């Protein structure tokens, strides 16, 4: 008999929590959308994207060179 009240309480908690959780999720989602639309955020995102595109080739060639150096080293004894 002790399991039934516990299951009822758990079910009620789940339902109430799910409602509150969904409402909070929607609030967070709306806030994130406002931040994404902010011109300052869009500008920073564009600058970061441009920097990554600019540096990608350099980083790739550095990685290739490091791999070549690593492969040319004699194995440890």
TrEMBL record:
It comes from the Bacteria. This is YtxH domain-containing protein. Residues 36-77 are annotated as: Disordered. It comes from Nocardioides salarius.
